[in-house]
Amino acid sequence: MKSVKVPLFVAATLVLASVAVYCLQILLFHRTEDTLFYLFQDLAFLPVNALIVVVVLDKLLKWHERQSMLKKMNIVIGVFFSEMGIRLLTMFSSFDKAGQEIRKDLLIGDRWSDTDYEIARKNIKKIDFAIDARNGNLQEMHDYFVQQRSFVLALMENPNLLEHESFTDMLLAASHLMEELSMRSDLASLSAKDLQHISVDMKRAFSALVNVWLGYMHHLKKEYPYLYSLAVRTNPFNSEARAEIN
Fold first, then answer.
1. Domain that includes residue 28, residue range
2. For residue 5, what is the DSSP state?
3. N or C: which end of the chain has fewer CB within 10 A?
4. Angle at 233 between CA 232 and CA 237, to 5 degrees
């Protein structure tokens, strides 16, 4: 939160105005002792006022600032899913042997409540993502990462996103997988041990991506119903999802 700087002449004017009011009170009512009594009473309460302003008001302002920043971050997250996140979810799903188990918890509906999202989060945490690098096309995923490399790097350079821990962790996991795939000269002839290593990296990235997506969908539900409607209709975990409304 930025500090507020009060110009010297403004501060002096306010102090002089206060002194003038006290002097006027004495001139009009001729009750110097009462004026001094209430002046010291106000001064005695000043530390409490300072405490309220510094602690309570400061926390409220920081909370408001954080909420505003989170809204801005969710806009960036929305751009991420529009540009590459949804495609990545679809690609990862092709490597997942437990896809049906995951899909049943992520068939998000228009009328999902906060409770539904909380249940989905708990269920997803219990699932062991059965990613197997042999089940899909690693070369296709590598080529897609290469295509989106500059976009991912631009996201990681955004300092505001560091405040969104789960999104940052997901980006790091995805970037690591991107580097792992880029370091291999022939993805079609990897050893069993190497494929197992890649599978672990994919599992980490996929799990993080699903959790961020679920949180983003919940955000859209509360803040942007019209965006939420399209997101539900194009749910990558729903094989019958269509953008068109029948």
1. 8-61
2. P
3. C
4. 70
